Amino acid sequence: MENKKTVEQKQNLNKKTTLSSIVSLLPFGLPQIILFVLCGSFYAYVGMEIILVSYLTPELEREWDLSSFQAGFMLSALFAGALAGSLVTGWVSDTFGRRTAILFGMLLSCICKALLLASTNWWTVSLLLFVTQNGSAASNIAFTLYLEFVKPPQRATQTMVFCIWWTIGSIVQVLFSWYTLEFLNWKYMILFHIVPAVLFFFIMIFSLPESIIFNHSKKKYFHVVNHLYKMNPGINEKKKSTKSAKQNQFEIEKKINQYLLERIDIKQIKDFFAQLESNSKLQKKFKYLMFQFRKTNNSNLDNLANDQIGFSGLLDTQNDEEIGSISANDNNNNDNLKLNVIGKENENVNENSDENENNKLIVNENDNSEENEKENKKEKEGSEEKSIRFRDLFSKKYRKLFIFFSISYVCISFAYYGIILLSPISFEEIKQSKFLNKYVLNLFQTISEIPGLFLGIYICKYLSRKTSLLLLLAISLISNTVIIFYRNTYVFTILLMLMRGCLLAFYMLIILFIIECFPTLVRNRALGVITAIARMGTILVPYTVYNSLGLNFPLAIYLAITAVNIFVISQIKAKTKNKSLE
Known about the structure:
MFS_trans_sf, transport, membrane, transmembrane transporter activity, 2 domains, mainly alpha
């Protein structure tokens, strides 16, 4: 019986520590809040953009006496830019990092918006809107970056909460547009849109971190560990914590150390810390890792000189029984990695064992047991999955998913952006009320996205991804059907609000579904290609809004598209709820 326990303990120690297991222990602290605000601000900025253009186009149509085709072409250029941008930013993100893609996208978008102020004809505006969306397409990258720092069980909830930034941006832009178009002109509307974005861009340069999962996939393990220490709540804590809080901080620290020791050999770790000691710039870059090293190694390299790295934990010395220590020894050409685990957790394993009387369990790297071979096989399969090439997205394993997600994303993009562009136009047909104008109507419809997101949060807790998506589409389908056949000002407004809220919740949930289904190194390229395919469809959206057939024409199209989307989602069999993103 004791031998079985010992084997089980060895197997547990041989399993590599995953990032998901560490992130799951980390509380939602200040680093996550800062990331939430930074990524959310960029998402809000892009949410403002579609509202900006929906008001800008009618203004330019009147001022420059444009035809319906020219007005529609400007909006089509916007979506065509999103098509190209989705491919470019997705590739940049998976190749150079999430942070690089976001900063590049935001800078490009701000520059093009500033040039819009000097535009004097519709084709210049069309070109600038096209290039603008090349940068703004990085909004999905911001969403991905934030999710890669979120615990798997909280991912669906955080998705919906994060999407509130989009709604906030839309509300702010409606208010900006209302004020500037009533009292100033469209150039001030663009100016009010740019200034906050430029300020946030400079803040993001100094504050936006790189994804720990991206760094992990690129084998930048020291960068990963440095950021994990930053997120550990006890790293900079000066006040004394409770015993349970210290124990939790220690467990986090122990897992972080295990993560590093399992992936970097001792010589590399020693060389890296020695380099840190002599390089002040690197110390600033890896300040949290350096802080931890100095704390656990008495601010010197003595342990490294003795071929040993010790990690002491955060508990008081009087609680030695509850302290676990991890050390990695490089003993004179001995390539075996030793993990010494001391504490209550292995008392039962060793209580009758003469070999382990010092409470030490030594696991050799060259252990050729059948259990280790199986474990190595699993790790090899996982490594192969992480090295998946982009063209493998079209292999048998991912082909159906890719096609179904592409069709569904085309449908939801067409319907959602169509409803947004329809809001100012629909006012002309339903303005029987003296209490409504096009700004109030659009404001109400934008605010309605918030209840839709809360509905999405609620159903995601209890239902699978697929069932949640189908329910949101069903509500939208019913609302769309009613407003086609029953045209009343208040009924139209309320049901259009409900429809828009459900469509946005679906929009965010389908992005989450896509992110969970594809591997790390191609995740954003897959999302980028799917988004690009969707943009091909949305290029036609403006022509459904600007037509001579009335309001029922676009509504009937959105109804048919929603029905198609329901069929497509029903064919997806993937189950990804609480799945690790590594």
